[in-house]
Amino acid sequence: MARKGENIYKRKDGRWEGRYIKERIGKKIKYGYVYGRRYNDVKKRLLECKTDIAANAENKNDSKFTRLSGMWLEQCKVTCKESTIIKYQNVIENHLNPYLGEYEISKITSDDITKLCKELYLHGGKNENGLASKTVTDIVSVLRRIRTYAIEEKYSVSFDISNIKQKRKHQKLRIFDKKEQDILQRHLTGNQSLSNLGILLCLYTGIRIGELCALKWSDISFERKSIFIGRTMFRLQVKEAKKTKIFITTPKSSCSIRTIPLPDAILKLLAAYQDNPDTFFLTGNAEKFVEPRTMQYRFKSVLQKCEITDANFHALRHTFATRCVEAGFDIKSLSEILGHSSVNITLNRYVHPSMEFKRNNMNKLEEFLAVK
């Protein structure tokens, strides 16, 4: 190779090659290369590369967590939905930046992260009463992604999240017993309305409240006797507008997009209310919808009228899953109906056999007992 100028060489193929120092890792030097047909073009490109490296080095002097989290969030805007970006933004501004914002990323230790988690559990939230374990898990998940981004951008990161153990609170989930379910069902069918029909639909399909509120009549196929779940509805706080906003979007997991077979009895009830395909199921209107918070209020009102102990709307989903197991559903089919990513989630989170079911199973052992 012939050489001309500063680290610019003439190659045998006639092109010019410029070499520059891309980065230093300890005593090792990593080079970058640019090519061109003309010497001046290569010289110009070399200067641009060196200028960019100098600018990046200057930026890396400002490696505060608040800056890096903002850079990561900007990168996410390319591939993530608006609702996802808002969730990430809320986590960063409400939980991560108040604790880590002024730290240099290289100065954050694993000890700092452990203390952060403990603080969130004990005193997190607006009322400082502590956050639920699921919320803390979501916060740590965002922190993990920011850490990965910082490493990819060649920032020095010393803290580790893999050893952070999330505290799990195994609360007893509310499931309607068969008597309560019978009372609820008789009330819903005896006082028919779109809202009551929606509650009944959740009780016999296990769909979530957000999925019910986003449901349209076009999602129900009377010919195929099925219901398609491809959207969900939720409300999020939007910082710029200083208020909350309703989002109707695809579920966060592809497993939640599913088709559920409908029982004939439910189809018969639905047929009486069948409406324009473009209208929302709960309103029969293409523009107006019922949001999850309103549906929750209506559900609790129904429970009061039925004199059933208070429960969250999600108890309908728990009850559906439990009854399916008691009826002998194979767990794989049930997992797909519920929209879970694995069978283990179905077994561990939503399937809770009743004491009556356990007792019946235990009684099956009688024939093997020596004592009569």
Question: What's the topology here?
Answer:
Layout: E1 2-3, E2 8-10, E3 16-25, E4 28-36, H1 39-60, H2 65-76, H3 82-100, H4 110-123, H5 133-152, H6 178-190, H7 194-203, H8 209-214, E5 220-221, E6 226-229, E7 232-238, E8 243-249, E9 258-261, H9 264-271, H10 292-306, H11 315-326, H12 331-338, H13 343-350, H14 355-363
Antiparallel strand pairs: 1-2, 2-3, 3-4, 5-6, 6-9, 7-8
How would you describe this structure in keywords?
about 375 residues, alpha+beta, hpI Integrase, Chain A, 3-stranded antiparallel beta sheet, 9 strands, elongated
Walkthrough of the structure:
The protein has 372 residues and is α+β, with helices and mostly antiparallel strands. It folds into three domains: 2-60; 65-152, DNA polymerase, domain 1 (Orthogonal Bundle); 178-359, hpI Integrase, Chain A (Orthogonal Bundle), CATH 1.10.443. 47% of the residues lie in helices and 13% in strands. The protein has 14 helices and nine strands. It has helices at 39-60, 65-76, 82-100, 110-123, 133-152, 178-190, 194-203, 209-214, 264-271, 292-306, 315-326, 331-338, 343-350, 355-363; strands at 2-3, 8-10, 16-25, 28-36, 220-221, 226-229, 232-238, 243-249, 258-261. Strands 1-2-3-4 form a four-stranded antiparallel beta sheet. A three-stranded antiparallel beta sheet has the order 5-6-9, with no helix packed on it. Strands 7-8 form a two-stranded antiparallel ribbon. A hairpin with a 5-residue loop joins strand 2 and strand 3 (16-25). Helix 2 packs antiparallel against helix 3, helix 3 crosses helix 5 (133-152) and helix 12 packs across helix 13 (343-350). The termini are far apart. The mean pLDDT is 85.
